[in-house]
Structure formats: C-alpha cells, structure tokens
Amino acid sequence: HVTQKMTEETDLQAIGVVDSRKKITGIIERHYLFSILGKPFGRDLMHRRQIKKFLTAVRSFYYDDNILEIANTLSDELQQHTTKFYILTNKKKEFAGIFSTSDLIIYLKEKVDIQAKELTQKNEQILESINYAKVIQSSLFPKEKKIQALLKNYFLIWKPKDIISGGLYWLKELEAGFLIAVIDCTGHGVP
C-alpha cells in the first residue's frame, strides 16, 4: 500500500506509520523506499519483510509546541541543508502529521516576511507621526517677518540633527521691547 501511495502521489516525501493505537512507529521516506525498490528483487524484499524493517525513527514534537522553539531545537539540522522529517503528535502522543526541515524553513521565511512587512508599515506610521510633529514644531517658531521687524541685525541657524530638534527658539514682542529665548534640550531630538 505504501509503494502504491508514494507512486500515485509524487509530491509525497514521507509517510507516517502508526500502530493499532495510532502511536507513531516511524516513517518511510520516499527516497529510501524507491532506493530499495530500484534494487534487484527490491519489490520481493518489500513484500517479504515487515514494514517496521523499513522505518526510519524520527524525533517527534507536540503539535502545540511553539514553532520558534522547535526551530531553535533543530537549528543545527536546519543549517545542514538536508531534508529531514519529524513527527507531530497530539496530547495522547498519537500521530498528528509530518513536517520536514524544508517545511520549517519555508514557514520561518514566511514569518520573517510578514514581520518585515509589519515593521515597514510601523516604521512608515512612525515617520508620518514624526514628520507631522515637525510641522507642529515649526508652527511654534516665530515667523521670519516678525524676527526681521524686531531685530535689524541677526542671523538664524536652525539645523536639527535629525527630523525634530530637542531645542527651539521663541520670540515675544512686548511694549518695552521683546523677549527672546533659545532653548536646548540636548539629546532629546527625534530621529
């Protein structure tokens, strides 16, 4: 039955074998099965021996385990660039599925892509907020015409290190003159 199933489903890379209690006894990997079948008398050998003689023992993981913890556990195997298979079990330690290092890498890549997209969106939102804060900060500064009317000989250098400065300047006209303030909050700008 295993040979027929693997022949019919060409993308099937491994089949889990369970006992009568649905406990996993191992897996049969496609490449191993077909390497046996490709040998002289391979089919006869498969029919004469019990299936357990052809099983590969594999590590199992509980299907509710954190995928990142599984990836961390398998980090050495993920770096070997070979496909290995693992079993997923339910709470009763019954067979729940099979996954491979390739499946795990694809999943992790998709997860990283999703997180990168979310990070880009959040970064754009933050930059929009910062740029709007720059507009608000700029609106607090005295207008150039007002400065020129009160001060005949002056210069103004305003170069925030980043987008928003932690400092500011302020000018207020009074009956007897004016008040001017230059305020510096060093290190408190917003990048």
Describe the structure.
Helix content is 42%, strand content 20%. It is of the alpha+beta class and 191 residues long. The longest helix has 40 residues, at 101-140. The model has no long low-confidence stretch (mean pLDDT 82).
Q: What is the distance, rounded to the nearest whole angstrom, between the alpha carbons of the first and last residues?
A: 64 Å
Low-confidence stretches: none
> H/E element string?
HEEHHEHHEEHHEE
Please bin the fraction of helical residues.
40-55%
Output the structural class: alpha+beta
Task: Give the radius of gyration.
Answer: 34 Å
Largest sheet: 3 strands, mixed
Give the percentage of residues in beta strands: 15-25%
Shape: rod-shaped
Largest sheet strand order: 3-4-5
Number of helices: 7
Oligomer: single chain
Number of strands: 7
**Mean pLDDT figure:** 82
Features:
single chain, 191 residues, alpha+beta, 3-stranded mixed sheet, two-stranded antiparallel sheet, 7 helices, 7 strands, 42% helix, rod-shaped
Compact summary:
This protein is an alpha+beta fold and 191 residues long.
